[in-house]
Amino acid sequence: MLIAHLAGTRNFPAALATSESLGYLGVKVFFVISGFLITSLLLKEHAKNGQISLRAFYLRRVFRIFPASYAFIAVMFLCAVFGLITLLPNDLLHANTYSMNYHRPHAWYMAHLWSLAVEEQFYFMWPAVLFFAGPRE
Fold it and tell me: What count of other Cβ atoms lies within 10 Å of the Cβ of residue 49?
């Protein structure tokens, strides 16, 4: 994935630029592993307690993901305020609401949040599906 992120940057060897598709594969593998791990945790919780605590799940996600995410967004905001970078309209709105994957066009600086948006949307929906539908054996 590192090589895929470097593709298109200044002075990057053109011969390696074709490896961009490996980046997409890496992202897909990450999403599959993340989904598997989250599902496993939820199923273990259900097996142990007979239910899934959505409140506890969402609180764990908030404390794990929000601090770093919002620190990054705050730094990008300050960089824009001081003229170091340029953000496009609604970049901050979509970054703060984890909907960057639906926002086009967007500034390059905020584009990195698209995968976090997809992951957060999964974290929002999938535990609720398991909670209401219950696990199937």
Answer: 10
Rounded distance between C-alpha atoms, residue 88 and residue 34, angstroms = 30
Structural domain boundaries, residue 35: 2-133
Alpha carbon of residue 115 to chain centroid: 4
AA letter at 46: H
Q: What is the pLDDT along the chain (137 residues), one digit of tens a residue?
A: 566 666 666 676 666 666 556 677 778 888 999 999 999 999 999 999 999 999 999 999 999 999 999 999 999 999 999 999 999 999 999 999 999 999 999 998 998 899 999 999 999 999 999 999 887 76
For 113, residues 6+ apart whose C-beta sits below 8 A from its C-beta are 69, 72, 73, 94, 95, 98, 100
Structural domain total, the chain: 1
Q: How far apart are CA 119 and CA 112, in angstroms?
A: 12
